[in-house]
Amino acid sequence: MGLLDSEAGRRRLLTVEIPVIERYNEGRDPEFRIRVTRVGGGLLLRYALKPGHNVYQLETRLVSSYPTLPPETRVITPLKHCPHLLEGQTMCLWRQGSMRTNSRWDPARFTCVFAIQAAWRWLACYEIWHETGEWPLPEAK
Amino acid sequence: MAHLIQVGAGSGGMPVLDMVCRDARITRVTLIEPDVYKPHNVERHLFPPSAVGELKAVLAEDWLKERRPELAVHTLVCDLLAPEQQAAIEQAAAEADLGVCAADNEPAKYHWDALMRRHGKPWTLGEVLSGGIGGFVHWFAPGGPCYGCVASYLQRSIEVERPKAPDYSQPGGAVAEITIPASKAAIETIASLHSLITLQMEDCRLQMVRNDPSQICDLQSSISNRLGFTSLLLTLQRAANVFDEAFRPYRFRIPRAADCLICRPGPTPSSSEELDVALDQALARLGDA
């Protein structure tokens, strides 16, 4: 049962996810807006983030079992290999069983825009790590 | 006279099914279970080693029929999320009076929760914690918190037991991470609590139906008053940094979260066709060709 082929999934998109994406895009420079395409039973969100000096292109996939399973975010812009980066430049963002409220995906409270904000924070950490060699969030280690 | 719909007849689900169906008020059962009984199931399951290779749903049906020949048992040998079986599952849920969830994965629990809420049915869920250090039993009724409200409130930092099957296809392959499985005793302790709470919920439902069938929506307050909790955690072992004491119950009265993204009411198109059109238009605005 995919996000797009179940009524519950389509209602979640229409009443929760799409309104927050539209609010995110409102007044934002077109280059940084979220663009959405259907992929299989889920959605692909393409967007750019500029946490500091650089602009990064990213993709966040709302998999068919979203929101039960967290979205998967990968950086399209080539990165230097670093901590918390998985295969295919996928960000390591959500940990099952984590004590930290922000690193445990909660489908009752989080939306895809929260995942994008988490990606922005991850990239900010990456830029600091790139300069200093230290990942600035000790709890992520 | 009650129709029980249950998903899962694994090591945790089968004892619940057995104990709940011993009650004469349960006259009909629909069981959703896709799995085959495997050698690694034998240690913690009710079925004998000679049954290895057979469908768990068939074994469960035989087990129930041996003890209650008059019980009407219908099995759906499919995954709860199988798209091609959704019509049959929806119909069974619509006809059922109460539900039991003994699924071992989060997508199935959320799917079950949505199914039960859509049809306004009360249901229970049992969860054994990894290593058998304790377990939760939750109950849900129309108008009360959804599974999302409960999971978000509890923010469980402990993993729920999910037995891993050995990789028979690669006997010489990589060795999986070692975890401590829950014992049969731990699983059956939580299953017994799960059964008791399910039967108490059924008491409340039947009492309400007898008094005034139109008041079924007040089931939430009726069960809440009777049990005094919505979720029960029983510790079974002392565990460093997790539980200070063994055999200690914790009762949680979890409210429905007004801002829960899973169950909060919202304006949505009334028909499926209107929903599709509205979604197509919304996605087109966001760039979907």
Structure write-up:
The complex is a heterodimer of chains A (141) and B (289). Chain A is an alpha+beta fold and 141 residues long. Chain A has a single domain, classed as Ubiquitin Conjugating Enzyme. Chain A is built from two helices and six strands; from the N terminus they run αββββββα. In chain A, strands 1-2-3-4 form a four-stranded antiparallel β-sheet, with helices on one face. A two-stranded antiparallel ribbon of chain A has the order 5-6. In chain A, a hairpin with a 2-residue loop joins strand 1 and strand 2. The termini of chain A are far apart. The relative contact order of chain A is 0.15. The mean pLDDT of chain A is 90. Chain B has 289 residues and is α/β, with parallel strands linked by helices. Chain B has a single domain, classed as Rossmann fold (3-Layer(aba) Sandwich). In chain B, strands 3-2-1-4-5-6-7-8 form an eight-stranded mixed β-sheet, with helices on both faces. In chain B, a hairpin with a 5-residue loop joins strand 5 and strand 6. In chain B, helix 1 crosses helix 6. The longest helix of chain B is centred in the C-terminal third of the chain and has 28 residues. About 3% of the residues of chain B have low confidence. The chains are: A alpha+beta (141), B alpha/beta (289). Chains A and B meet through helix 1 and strand 1 of A and helix 4, helix 5 and helix 8 of B.
